[in-house]
Amino acid sequence: MTTKHEQILEYITQLQIGEKISVRSIAKALSVSEGTAYRAIKEAETQGLVSTIERVGTIRIEKKKKENIEKLTFAEVVNIVDGQVLGGRTGLHKTLNRFVIGAMKTEAMMRYVTAGNLLIVGNRYQVHKIALETGAAVLITGGFSTSADAVRLADELNLPIISTSYDTFTVAAMINRAIYDQLIKKEIVLVDDILIPLQDTYYLTVTNTIGKWQEFNERTGHSRYPVVDEAMRVQGMITAKDVFDKPKHWLIEKVMTGDPITVNERTSIAAVAHLMVWQGIELLPVVDQQRKLIGVVSRQDVLKALQTTQRQPHVGETIEEIVTSRMEEKRSGNELLFTCDITPQMTDHVGTVSYGVVMTLMVEAARRTMRKHKRGDLVLENVTLYFLKPVQIDSHISIMPSILEIGRKHGKFDVALYHEGELVGKAMLTAQLIE
């Protein structure tokens, strides 16, 4: 039997794209409390089914496909630029193809404006109308409004007119930053990217017998399966060692390992790899918010995904990549060391190298040193920074890592930071090693 929470999510899924919803309307339509409706709407927002806009409300939007993540909806643009919707609210769910800055004469400008675009322009009323007629939405900068005719046309064509107090340059930078952030997110492999979906997953129920496990084992050659109840909620995991030497008629529930570790579809592969190595797990159930089974991920698929991402070119640079890309490898006799120049982006508000940058440099130095000895990657477990002196902008520093201990699954490193021959930082790192 489905819960009220699940019924609300199903109801939202079936709403028309662009339809406006509210806590009160959901509560009334499904005879649930406003608290239950609020929680379900928030989860729908997390899943990308709805978008909440200040002064507009919550609207049903089309869930983005993975390959379309670098595009923004007009609803997202409103939130990015702290905008106010003047007209065309029913079109907020639409996705913009590109944005055009209207800083030229009308005739020249309109050569670049096509349907699905977002025209960023000031208080040029006639241009607003022409852009709408072309099929483009309009973002008005400088806090200006538009004409009543343009608002009426926007409502007729379901194309938003948005006003923001920011100037054109700032708005363009904000939208670019949002697209860039989404590109970085796209590069992060999640469980959702590699999971074996429910329709292809073998699982057992608490009322099955060990005989059913043996049947699956003969058919698939696998020995690990999630165990669910009648509502598909994960209750346990069962493996070969759980059923060894047990009668075939025994219930699975009697021998399974209860309350297993699970992950959700938004968990990163790096986090899953850390969990699997640390706990010695070969198969993890993937669950939704109600702990219902939606698939599984195997250790083999996780490690394969990690290897693939390491070979892929990156479109968006994270802060960590900006820092580590400036590290250069050098030799000092038999010792390996790394050098790096401290740029303004690496400093804090008083102009000295930030704590986070120091940590990033030390971990990366340990990682690169470890790869000289064995293949694989390093997942940080603990860092003890027991000495750090301020390092200024434009300083040239040396990072000297040394291996204290390295085994099959764990490593311990000592990392020292030097500036002009003087020790300015020292830390000890312990990490898991993923082969």
Helical segment count: 16
Strand arrangement within the widest β-sheet reads 16-17-19-20-21-18
The tally of strands reads: 21
CATH architecture descriptor text of the largest domain: 3-Layer(aba) Sandwich
Count of separate structural domains: 4
**Tell me about the biggest sheet?**
6 strands, antiparallel
Arithmetic mean of pLDDT:
84
What would the CATH topology of the largest domain be?
Answer: Udp-n-acetylmuramoylalanyl-d-glutamate--2,6- Diaminopimelate Ligase, Chain: A, domain 1
SS-based class:
alpha+beta
Low-confidence stretches: 312-316
* CATH structural class of the largest domain: Alpha Beta
How far apart are the first and last residues' alpha carbons, in Å? Answer: 44 Å
Q: How large is the radius of gyration?
A: 28 Å
Classified in CATH, the superfamily of the largest domain is HprK N-terminal domain-like
Q: Globular, elongated, flat, extended or rod-shaped: what is the shape?
A: flat
Q: Tell me the β content.
A: 25-35%
**What is the share of helical residues?**
25-40%
Q: What's this, in brief?
A:
Keywords: CBS domain, DNA-binding, Transcription, Transcription regulation. With 435 residues, the protein is α+β, with helices and mostly antiparallel strands. The protein folds into four domains: 4-60, Arc Repressor Mutant, subunit A (Orthogonal Bundle), CATH 1.10.10.10; 66-187, Udp-n-acetylmuramoylalanyl-d-glutamate--2,6- Diaminopimelate Ligase, Chain: A, domain 1; 195-308, CBS-domain; 319-434, Hotdog Thioesterase (Thiol Ester Dehydrase, Chain A), CATH 3.10.129.10.
